[in-house]
Amino acid sequence: MILKTGIGLGLALNSFLGFHPPQITPPSFIDNSQIISHKHSSIETRLTESWSPRSSYEADYLARIAESEQTLSSHYYELGFRPLKSDASVLSEQKLAFADQLGIPYTVIRKQDKRLPIPAWQYRLEFNFGKINEETFDLLLEHYGHISSLPSKVSYNPNKIYKLKDFLPPIVKELEGTRLEPSNKAIPEFIWSLASAPLKRRQKPRSSLYTNCWGIAYEALRGASDFKLFYAKANWMLDTLRAHSTQLASASDLGSFPDPSRLKTGDIVIVSHMSEGKEYFDHTAIVVDNGLYFEKAGSGGKTPIRIIDQDNLHSLWKPGVFNYEWRRPVAGAKWEDPKQIFSLSSKKALERFPGLKNMPDIFLGKHSADWEEEEDGSTYLSIYDMRTVSSNERSSL
């Protein structure tokens, strides 16, 4: 969602880092009460070109990081995912344009979780096809199974009751209808000692398992079966989305919005706003059908991962206040593993933060960061886990 969000470690870095991002104020509904700040006045990089564990504790910590890349205990509840409640479920008249064209029958259920704090967050749509023949399966797969750059792996089963999300990318199929409660964990002192002088801090250094709308959308576009949960710097993500797509339209006034029928399954909508001549990336969602979107509704532990209609999207991101941009992924675009472009081990990250280069590679490759500059010139760095959720270990909620 908005740039200045999330739960993480604040680490004050001086101008030696070579980056001075703008200060940004989040919308009032963003809960920043859990942000953990962690500040020091200077960075002192060690001169050693390589590093190896100096104790069994350090070796064990790095071994656990390495092992989690291969055998992550990825039961969703353990990761912090919670199923959305269905306090009220009613039949909806929402349409699936493609299914209607082919005369494929379906039912639509509008579900509500009254526990979510913002009324517009409470609703989600579920589309059910029931048991279908193989010809119908192939038609649905051909249309809805190509959001991502990788082919869908869903297979036909005559006894299965199919839902729309079964034909969508793995992260949509697995996480739609849930929310993620962010969690944080301590980062051992020895990790930070590799990159910095003694720290002046209010809290011990921590990292967070956290993702937002663009982390989820990116992995839907990438379409990998073993997807990642991660958070990326907003302007890095915005640049990446634009580099992999072409613009279809851009407008702020609702009257200038393109007709939904012009959009295709897999198109991207980017929501942003301007402040003092600068563009700020607020939200992104993926077009599923005519007037339907897949999204994580925002940041924090109360935001649903869901399929919603255009009116719901507009109620949260009001046209006239926010600008909308519609983009179509370039055919054959390569959506790289987030580790390659968003982690602390990426070339771009190490260019921004050269003081971190002496941390173990396994740590850098499993974490990403966000940052903001304060008026006193300090830069607060928030650290986030980058977790791979392996398809052969997932279990449903």
Write up this protein.
The protein is of the alpha+beta class and 397 residues long. It folds into two domains: 277 residues, no CATH class; 101 residues, no CATH class. It is 23% helix and 25% strand. The longest helix has 16 residues. It is globular, with a radius of gyration of 22 Å. The N terminus is likely disordered.
- Global morphology: globular
User: Which runs of at least 5 residues are low in confidence (pLDDT < 50)?
Assistant: 1-50, 69-74, 197-202
Structural class: alpha+beta
Strand content: 25-35%
The domain count comes to 2
Distance between the termini: 25 Å
Helix content: 10-25%
The number of distinct helices, counting runs of at least 4 residues, comes to 12
Q: What's the overall average pLDDT, rounded?
A: 81
Report Rg. 22 Å
Using DSSP, what is the number of strands? 19
Give a quick rundown of the structure.
By secondary structure, this protein is α+β, with helices and mostly antiparallel strands. Helix content is 23%, strand content 25%.
